[in-house]
Structure formats: C-alpha cells, structure tokens
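job 3f2a | input accepted
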Amino acid sequence: MNTTRAFWERLWRLSGINFVVFVIIAYVIYGYQPQVGAPADALAAFYGGHRTRILIAAAFSGLNVLNLMWFAAALRTTLADAGQDGWGAAATASSAAVGGLFLVLLTVSAALAYSIAGSGNQTLTAGLNDFAWVLVVSSSFPRAMLIMSGSFGLWRAGLISNALFGAGVAVVVLGVLGGTTWVSGGFWAPDGAYSRFVWPIMGLVWVVVASRVLARSPATRAGW
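job 3f2a | predicted structure (224 res):
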C-alpha cells in the first residue's frame, strides 16, 4: 500500500512536467494565430484552412487543463504539509482562474475553426480573434499569482534556496508586466514577442523547476 501511495504521489507531483510537454505539443499543432487586426483573408486561411489542426490542438489543451489542476493540487498539498496553508489556498485559487481563462481561450479558437470563420461573418471572426489575444494578456495576472504563491510558499517552507526564491520573484514581476502589453504593435503588443514567447517560456521553466522540487519533497501524509 505504501508503495502504491508513493507511486501516485510522485506521479501527481510531476504533473507540471506533463503540463509543459502538452503545452509544447499543442502549440506546435496549433500553429501561428493571426495577429490583432489581421485581414479577413488571413483569418479565413488560418481558421478555415487549418480547421482540423486547431481542433486537435484544442483537445490537447483541454486535457492539459487537467494537468494544470493536478500540478496545483500537488503544490497545495505540499505547502499544507509544510504549514503554509495560506499560500496553498492561493495556488488553488490562482490555478482555477488560469484554467478557466485557458478553457475560454481554447473554446473561442475551437469555435472559430469549427464554424464561425466559415460562416462568412468577417466582423465576428475578427472580433473573436482579437478577443483571444486579450485573454492571453489578461491571464498574465493569475499566472503570476500562481507562480507567486508557489515561490513564496516553497521558500517559507524551506524547500527552495534564496536564489531560487529570488528567481521566482523576478518571474512574478515580469509576469505581472505581461498584463500591460497593450501597445498597438511590436514587442509589447498583445500579439508581440513578449506575450507570445518571453513570458510563457519563463512560466513554463518555473513549472518545471517547481515540479522537480515537489518530486523531491515527499508528503508526510497520504495526499492522494
């Protein structure tokens, strides 16, 4: 029984690694989404021409929300075991917000590919495409909160070094800045390099590091 519990404990604590892998797979399948204000022909070519690919990516992304929830649950359990229930609760709340926004985002993309883009309503298609980019920017705040709760909680629990804590705080600050990317074009735009690459990559690296910390920190009680 103890061996079985240890197996499941380690499996769920590594859900963050699964989350990162699924993100990469879904991103590769999904492709490059048209930018804000993209012309009608570009929208039709992407959502209509890559309909199957987008729907497959949506399925992977939907499954990946489960990985995110399991990762947050493992983080909360570890923090609760270490007496950091407050930070654990913050991780649960912020992960729920992130998961909810991700579900809305993938639903919008799937709906565009499934039927809306092919309906000929160019105004609606363009509006929803822009709305998807707005969701990416808005999700920066709960994503930063998830990283903050994990970084502060693990540090207060003595599970990470001061150096890792400092790196986590830096990612939190840079993540919050991701919620200010409202320039009309360029690096700091909603569809710019910071929102599309820099901030997501930093977040994924943090998830990998946190997952390794969780895997090395077995619970003092059966959490699963």
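job 3f2a | The chain has one domain: 2-215.
job 3f2a | closed
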